[in-house]
Amino acid sequence: MVSQKNGSSEPIGSSLGSDMSDFLKGVSTLVELQAQLFVTDVRECRQHGFFPGLILLCGVALGTGCFPVALVAIALLLIQVFEISYAAGFLIAVLAGTVLSGLLTMIGWFQVRKQMTVLQRSQQELVRNLRWLKKILVRDRLTRNQNGPNNSWRTKA
Phi then psi for 141, rounded to 5 degrees? Predict the structure, then answer.
C-alpha cells in the first residue's frame, strides 16, 4: 500500500505553509513595530533637539557671517594699541576667532549629539529583532538537518 502522507495525519505541505505563515506574520509585526518606534524616537528627538540645533546653527552663522568684520576690527585694534605689524595683528585676530568659533560649534554639536541618543532605543530594538530573526532561521535550519532530509514527498511502500 502506498501512502502519500508518509505517516503524517496532515496534508503534505500544510505544516510548512502554516509555519511559514506564522513566521511571516511575526516578521511583519516586528517591522511594523520597529517603524513605529523609529517614528516616535524621531518625534521625540525633534522636540528635544530644537534648542541645541539652534545653538549649533547660531555658532556656525556667527562664525561665517559676523566674524570677518569683528576679526578685522580686532586686528586693527591690536595693530594700533601694541604697534605690531599688520600680519601679526591679523594673525592674532584670526586665531582668537577660530578658537571662539570652534568652542561655539563644539558646544552646539555635543548638545545635538546628546539629543540624538534618543534614537539609540530604535537602534537597539532593531539589533534585538535581527538577532531574533537570525536565531529563528538558524534553529529552523538545525532542526531540518537533525531530522534528516525532508522526504515527505516520497511515498512509502
Answer: -65, -40
